[in-house]
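Example record

The entry below shows one chain as it appears in the dataset: sequence first, then structure tokens.
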Amino acid sequence: MCRFSFACVLISFACLATPALAQVAPSKIPPGLEGDPLWADCGSDSFKLIVAACGQIIERGEAEPPQNRALAHSNRSIVYLSYAELDQAFEDLNTAIQFDPACARAHAQRASAHSMRNEHQNTLDDADRAIDLFPNYAYAFRRRGLAQSALNNQPAALADYDRAIEIDPEYADAYADRGSHYGYYLGDYRQGLAELDRAIRLEPDNSDLYRLRGWMLTNTQNYRRALVELERALTLNPYNDAAYMQRGRAYRGMGNLGAAMADANKAISLNSHSTLAYVLRADIHFRQRNTRQGLADFDHAIRLDPHSTDIYIGRARAWLRAGNRRAARADYETAVRMDPDNIVARQELQRMR
């Protein structure tokens, strides 16, 4: 499983089946067709096979039952999500739900697509629907946890990560998200790194897990170790926009603003919806005294995700370095008003007093 391409290739088990305890996700293959070669390819983890096989099934039109057509569209959307081709992903997922409103997989994957557009309430709504349809859907609980976190409901987010792990004790991404939660929201990077170590033992070739470990090491100012982890992430997945963004943060911490700017630009070129990449680039502009360009990037990030406290915290820090304490205080106060439990915003605001 992957984290934050935000487009996980989900585990294979039944879109309409009654969930058993061993099942952690609905199936990508209709009941009774597990031995069909075309469906085996459509429900596989090979993007090339998925596109070809699911396309053939979709072309059959009304010769296929609506539930099967829904699964074919849902399976193909995984490829579009993985490459952040959101228009195509939404087209497939909306079509899937029209064919079969009870397809839990389509709702969960549409939640992922909404998340990539920072549409957090829509993410929450689709994840809720997926859980209603398939109560043991570990991925839907994790996806809902990410939405709860983005909407500043941190206790509910942690509860959803815990539930995902309870359902699937080998769910590496859920450990990674819980570790990120411990690090960012609770300030417990030791526990956060322990959760990530467990995730990496489960999935040693998962690019995003090394990216997250690099993020935590950057936050503890261990920049050289962070760069090692982030290089590993990018070796495993050269298209990991978030890894470029995090490597940019590490370079910024080391004072290499040129390399940091190059990585921020690369992250944005791979994912134009990456608010944190815009925040990073904005901060670099401020450090280079390009205030107008920095403000433009911060404003763009806020338009992309008006609920993100990270943006206001980032802009507050930039204002402080620029010597504008009044503007910094206003942004910190906005962050605290949006999320009263945000430890980072509260502590940094308190240090200004």
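Notes for this example: The longest helix spans residues 66-82. The radius of gyration is 21 Å.
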